[in-house]
Amino acid sequence: MYPNEIELQWSVLIVLYPFLTGLVAGAFILASLERVFRVDAVKPTYRLALLTALAFLLVAPLPLQLHLGHPERSLEMYLTPHRSSAMAMFGFVYLWYLMAVLVMEIWLDYRRDIVVLSQTTTGIKRLIYRVLTLGSSNISDGALAVDNRVGWIITVIGIPSAFLLHGYVGFIFGSIKANPWWSTPLMPVVFIFSAMVSGIAMVLLLYMGLNRLRGKPIDMRCVDTVAKYLFYAFIIDFSLEMLDLIHRIYESDESFRSLDFMVHSRLFLSQVVVQILLGTVAPILLLGLTQVSRLSEIARKRIYTLAGCLTMMGIFAMRWNVVIGGQLFSKSFLGYTTYKMGFATREGLLPAVVLTVLPFIILFVLVKLLPPWADEQTEPIARSAAVH
Amino acid sequence: VNLTRRHFLVLLPAAALAWESILAGTPEAAPNYQISEHWWGMLVDIEKCIGCGNCVRACAQENNVPEGYYRTWVERYRIKEVNGVETLEVDSPDGGMHGFPSSDEPGVKQFFVPKMCNHCADSPCTQVCPVGATFISPDGVVLVDEKYCLGCRYCVQACPYGCRFLHPQKNVAQKCTLCYHRISKGLTTACCENCPTGARQLADLKDPKDPIHEYLRTHSVQVLKPHMATGAKLFYHNLDGAVR
Q: Do A7 and B90 touch (CB under 8 A)?
């Protein structure tokens, strides 16, 4: 072990960062299924997926900000970015995705509702909706058709953008040649597919959970389709991860013995047990079961919930194993260190838990403000009055 | 001043740039030092190193290196053969600062390897810095601007040699500066100055009179992890293949 390597540089907060952006990218790609690929069955999750993506995207930079030694200098990344640095592009990729894709698409999709709500609500709510209309209250059929068209174009741009957002996060790790655990061109691709898996699973769980809380029936055609896509994405994700593993074992380069020992010792629980067995193989088998056999509605719901929860755990473990695992061994391939997580410290467990809960609070507010449910669709009081 | 909103918006970025330049100030002048006439590196002769730790202590003192972190350190390699299989032990207690416990085990190949920043010409650490706070100076020294570093630690991850750390109080990346404050005044580094056997030699690859040229011509030298293609300028003589 080189003496400066004993202390880990990237903490649990940096584990959260790819986990949160992965959920954003995955949720957006699920939303695009309906919009671009015309998978009508998943329509009930469309708006929820967009709001989920926004809630998680708003929180995604916070763990990074908290982790910086000098957070007050973070603006320098925008003002004087270093062009050869993968990390310098973060701010631009993030802003592009947030402002040009997600916020635009949500606004266009909700514009009609916002205009109607700005006319039907009172008090502070009315003020909020009035601001959100951005001064445009035209909801004529022609205007809505334009909204729809522009929204479609944004979604089409949004798909590669979602891939960029998370593929880029993978590139930050994959391009570090000093670290053999990270350095693989597969990293961005694995990150994209694991993002799709986590985002789809999150929206699936949220859709079922929120409908249960609202006491509304779950659209089984919708969740069956979402689960089917989750299953497909998972198969690709698992194949890529296994390809990476087999490649490493077969090549057995100079780092292999060191990494192999690490996987069999310090990472055994989080990598082999939690990530691979419980977090990947188990949900694939469970979802596979629903694809090949005719199960009752209640059995399917329970399987989807269980598989969804296992998936979230598995993807979090995957991020953990990449970020923390990549710092547990020495770059000399001689020796290992351990990660000691604080509790109420700046990069400890407590801020990590707060940052994990925060997107759900934001989502709660967003769902209240912009209801994503088809059964709560707003109707204009007098259509003609709204047209100017 | 009759300033329209349009003019104000046009002038804003220019004003921001001007303000940045004012904040940056004037660089410290070194009238007798011609930056373009040097290209610094270092030569380490493994056979000469006795593992005394003088270099580590001198560096810590000269540069106020925080305790538990190292801008330079010394590793002891011990290679022995057990039933035809080579086993390797490496230790570096306190970075070798206080020397090493003696070991007279027979049949063991033992040697010391001083380590520090390789001041790579194609350094992976400067490549990844998101704001360019770490950079390679025109005379070939990799430095960190402490007033600019965000403390993101991407450079620490990118260094293949484990030479960087985050200063625990300043919260910025730190590393060997090749005693830039000394070499730009015609002195040698603190570690070279204090090495009792001359195992470390500062080398100016642009100076035709520097003995490094003769040495490189007549000796076999190696850099650490050559497959990383970092353009390392820390040259080792008699480097064993086991050293990483």
A: no
Task: Summarize pLDDT for A19-31 with one digit per residue, the tens.
Answer: 999 999 999 999 9
Q: A43-59 and A349-369 are packed helices; what angle lies between their axes, rounded to 10 degrees?
A: 140
- The predicted-structure confidence for B40-63, as pLDDT tens digits, reads as follows 999 999 999 999 999 999 999 999
Q: Is B180 exposed, middle or buried (0-12, 13-18, 19+ CB in 10 A)?
A: middle
Q: Which residues lie across from B78 on neighbouring strands?
A: B89, B110
Q: What's the pLDDT tens digit per position in A117-162?
A: 999 999 999 999 999 999 888 999 999 999 999 999 999 998 888 8
Tokens (6 digits) for B128: 């990844």
Beta-carbon-side half-sphere exposure of residue A306 (alpha carbons within 13 Å): 16
* Nearest chain A CA: its distance from B162 CA (Å): 6
Residues 6+ apart with CB under 8 A from A273: none
Is residue A381 very low, low, confident or very high in pLDDT (cuts 50, 70, 90)? low
Which of B123, B128, B164, B225 to substitute to test the interface with A, most A CBs within 10 Å? B128
Q: Which of B115, B124, B150 sits opposite A76 (nearest CB)?
A: B150
User: Which residue type, as a one-letter code, is found at position B66?
Assistant: P
**Which of B131, B154, B162 is facing A5, going by the closest CB pair?**
B162
Among A193, A169, A159, CA closest to A61: A169
Maximal CA-CA distance, chain A: 76
With a CB cutoff of 8 Å and minimum separation 6, the contacts of A123 are: none
B76 touches B90 (CB < 8 A): yes
Q: Which two tokens stand for residue A308?
A: 């969804």
Pick from A81, A178, A327: CB nearest B158: A178
Average pLDDT of chain A?
93
Task: Give the integer Cα–Cα distance in Å for A338 and A72.
Answer: 30
Question: Is there a contact between A54 and A102 (Cβ–Cβ < 8 Å)?
Answer: yes
Please tell me the predicted confidence (pLDDT) of residue A387.
Answer: 42
Task: Name the closest residue on chain A to residue B94, using Cα atoms.
Answer: A3
> Which parts of B100-239 fold into alpha helices (H)?
124-128, 154-158, 180-183, 190-194, 212-218
- Which chain A residues touch B73 with a CB distance below 8 Å? 2-3
Question: Residues B237, B219: contact at Cβ < 8 Å?
Answer: yes
Which of A4, A87, A334 shows the shortest C-beta gap to B90?
A334
What is the distance in angstroms between the CA of the first residue and the CA of the last residue of chain B? 65
Nearest Cα neighbor of A44 from A163, A199, A217, A160 is A217
| B150, closest residue in chain A (CA to CA) | A70
Of A137, A215, A178, the residue nearest B154 (C-alpha): A178
pTM for the full predicted model: 0.91
pLDDT at A213: 93
Can you name the residues that pair with B202 across neighbouring β-strands? B42
φ, ψ for residue B78 (rounded to 5)? -130, 115
Rounded to whole angstroms, the Cα distance separating A261 from A254 reads 13
Please report, as a single letter, which amino acid is at residue B32. Answer: N
Is the predicted pLDDT of residue A386 greater than 60, yes or no? no
| CA A261 – CA A249 distance, rounded (Å) | 12
Question: Which chain B residues are within 8 Å of A178, Cβ to Cβ?
Answer: 124, 157-160, 228
Residue B79 contacts A, CB cutoff 8 Å: no
Give the span between the Cα atoms of A66 and A78, in whole angstroms.
17
Q: Looking at CA atoms only, how far is residue A67 from chain B in angstroms?
A: 7
